[in-house]
Amino acid sequence: MSRASQADCTAPEVSVLLLCYNHARFVDDCLQSVATQTLTGFELIVCDDASTDDSVARIELGLQRLQLQARFIRHASNLGLCPTLVELMGLARGRYIAMVAADDLWEPERLAQQLALLRQHPEAALVYSDAHQIDEEGRRLPLSVMQAHHAPEPPPSGMLFSVLANGNFIPAMATLIRREAIDAVGGYDASLSYEDYDMWLRLAERYPILHLPGRLASYRIVESSMVRTLFRRPNGAHYETLFRICERWLSRDLLSPEQRQRWTVRQADAAYGLFYGGHPRARQALWTVARRDAKRRWRWLLIAGMCAIGLHRPRLVGLAGRLRRQHRE
What we know:
Blueprint: E1 14-20, H1 27-35, E2 43-48, H2 55-66, E3 71-74, H3 81-91, E4 96-101, E5 105-106, H4 110-120, E6 126-134, H5 145-148, H6 161-164, E7 175-178, H7 179-184, H8 196-206, E8 209-220, H9 226-232, H10 236-250, H11 257-276, H12 282-292, H13 297-308, H14 313-328
Parallel strand pairs: 1-2, 1-4, 2-3, 6-8
Antiparallel strand pairs: 4-7, 5-8, 6-7
Helix pairs in contact: 1-2, 10-11, 11-12, 12-13
């Protein structure tokens, strides 16, 4: 009998969402780690987001070889991480949600141990554990995910909003989330470019979050991965997501004075990133920052004014280049 849930009328307790984009090199190992879970009867939903490599063929072969019953979604065009996640959430039937990217791995007891803890604590929204970091060849790196993200010691449980407001240290591939809690805070936002930190904060505002000791997953550091590229070379979508997350919490009275100062600077950096890239929402973002950042208000008003007359940074750079060429001629 398959370790994934059978297609019957009984809703599974756990839904596993496996997302793939150009992970043909790694998806076999990921599927193997899902197939060897000690927990049985879970629902598996796999989605390939229009990969340009042979991920689809590798997934089909892997599901067949491992006798994993799954719903396999194949996108004809690339939707991106958050829209894909929203789609899969709409299909998932489980009371608990576990997610994994096709280049990451799980330890065999990952689902069973975390589910046991959430069953004992119906008031909690989420349980998290640490995860190894591995390179593209699967070799473990010196620091775990939580160590690399400067997680508090010891890792905390409870109402964690104020702790998470200092920075995200929860490994998404090593979490199990109560579906009812996700729905209660409004679900995932398909318009964002990354999803985990926004969701952790919304859950932490309303529910306890639990830590389960151990490293129950492996996060692969892949130079070409979408998330790594997004944070090392941020684009307009990244800056807009960051700006909106900052605005959500700066407009509430939950941050300490020190946190509010840091989040204001972070939002201002995001607004400048939008200006730098010529994003259409740059002017509105800069006006918002000008109202909030009294220390640098005139700077933001000046830059917002430049946007108002169409002088985004790319255009200024172009004008300066033309002036230099004309001067040389």
